[in-house]
Amino acid sequence: MKKFFIQDVKEGSQQAAYMFIAINVVWFVGGIAELDYGVFENVLQLFWSFSLVGILLGLKDLQGDTVPEDWRQGYTMIAAAVFVASLLGINEDLNTSGVWTLFGFVILGLGVTSEGVIDNIWRYAAIIAGLSGIVGAGSEFITGTNIIADTPFQFVFFLAFIAGVGIGPLLAWNKKE
């Protein structure tokens, strides 16, 4: 049990990526099948939040010197903000779209700055996911309506998000010594 709490960054990031991918696949399939997870949705949201934080915190070490120190420290800041926004977002009366808009910029930045660290296909997926996050969450933040939600493109952007944020860093960690 102790090893779980003091594991190295690589191992923790890999486990977080696996959990992130698994939960997103469950949500993706559930969305297509129109499943209602009931209160289990909150459990999924909690573990999704932990997994996303694990990925974000690991990016600092994954990217290393390919990005400036202030950007690397920014991953810690956005991880905390995303975790709080994710858990607060369970209460649908709260508008957390501003944080998700900022997160879209971070994902876009990840795709742009990770050349040579994350393979190009996953970087491009992150760029697409970041842009869709900026447009979708940004439109909701400004107008109160997410212009991407409930469109056919929503599934494409969701898959890009899983690939760019989950699969890309996971495969990069698997290659890293």
CA(first)-CA(last) distance? 25 Å
Shape: globular
Radius of gyration: 16 Å
User: What's the main sheet like?
Assistant: none
Give structural notes.
By secondary structure, this protein is mainly alpha-helical. The chain has one domain. Helices cover 77% and strands 0% of the residues. Helix 3 (40-63) crosses helix 7. The protein is globular.
Features:
7 helices; 77% helix; 177 residues; single chain
Structure summary:
By secondary structure, the protein is mostly helical. It has 7 helices and no strands. It has one domain (9-175).
What's the structural blueprint in terms of helices and strands?
Blueprint: H1 2-5, H2 9-33, H3 40-63, H4 69-88, H5 97-113, H6 120-143, H7 153-175
Helix pairs in contact: 2-3, 2-7, 3-4, 3-7, 4-5, 5-6, 6-7
